[in-house]
Amino acid sequence: MRLGIISALHEEQQGLVEAMEGPYKLTHGMREYFVGRLWEIDAVCVLSRIGKVAAALTTATLVEKFGVTHILFTGVAGAGDASVRVGDIVVAESLVQHDMDASPLFPRYEVPLTGLTHFLSDHHMALQLADAAHRFLEDDFALAVDPGERAVFALSGPRLHRGLIASADQFVSDKDRLDALNGALPGLLAVEMEGAAVAQACFELGIPFGVIRTISDNANEHAATDFMRFVKSVAARYAFHIVRQFCLGWQKAGVTQASRESAGT
Ligand code: SAH
């Protein structure tokens, strides 16, 4: 197994690259790929840059040039529903491109020639991600995020959600737009700009993937306020510890699997 870890923003990736054992850097297509071991897992870390094309290109390169077998995307997102709050975590079960509209030739949101509007993330990876997020909230959150920053962003008892994420080449910062999306896409939890592109690329290439997002804003008129401060002091800490917990959990599951196989069960 080789895990590709894609981050959208530099601040989220930095800690992971620093934690890598024996990393080496390869530059390709205007991106830097860091190859090494992360908590005993063979991994490649890369910044996708922002938007669907950037994310799809990065995904394809990870698979075709770096031979990754699984992909994990970590980033921030706007809340897609009133029940989701800043500081909460969303693990994607399915993803949709909310700017896809080839109607009347194809139904709204359907990606032409795939027959799909919603792309499912890998069930096993989503479970492992949810476990990792739970462990982060229980074991790491209190120490990992500075109390001053917790107060600034009113983070008290952040929660984990699992469900639908919608992506587009659009930063949503308008309450009416968000309400319309929420009405059109039942179960919507978060809006962002890359996840559904990774999902389509992985679907077409047959690669299991997972997407996890920390909620940075309410996708309304205040969305851009303190965005970078949140990314640096909160989301970067979430991303680091969740990926760490994910790798530790994955390693443990792999060891259990291997010992079962050697025991012939
Ligand atoms: N101000 C940043 C740009 C961030 S773009 C800069 O100068 O670098 C927003 C990034 O966060 C994208 O990667 C997107 O996936 C995610 N995101 C967070 N909130 C979002 C929202 N309300 N709408 C869409 N994407 C959002």
From TrEMBL:
Enzyme Commission numbers on file? 3.2.2.9
Q: What class of enzyme is it?
A: hydrolase
Q: Tell me which Gene Ontology terms the entry assigns under biological process.
A: L-methionine salvage from methylthioadenosine; L-methionine salvage from S-adenosylmethionine; nucleoside catabolic process
**What InterPro entries does UniProt report for this protein, alphabetically?**
MTA_SAH_Nsdase, Nucleoside_phosphorylase_d, Nucleoside_phosphorylase_sf
The metabolic or biological pathway listed in the UniProt record of this protein is: Amino-acid biosynthesis; L-methionine biosynthesis via salvage pathway; S-methyl-5-thio-alpha-D-ribose 1-phosphate from S-methyl-5'-thioadenosine (hydrolase route): step 1/2
> Which residues are in the Nucleoside phosphorylase domain?
2-243
Q: A Pfam family this protein belongs to?
A: PNP_UDP_1
Q: Which GO terms describe its molecular function?
A: adenosylhomocysteine nucleosidase activity; methylthioadenosine nucleosidase activity
Keywords per UniProt: Amino-acid biosynthesis, Glycosidase, Hydrolase, Methionine biosynthesis
Example of a GO cellular component annotation carried by this entry: cytosol
Q: Which NCBIfam families match?
A: MTA_SAH-Nsdase, PRK05584.1
Protein name (Swiss-Prot/TrEMBL): adenosylhomocysteine nucleosidase
Q: Which organism is it from?
A: Massilia cellulosiltytica
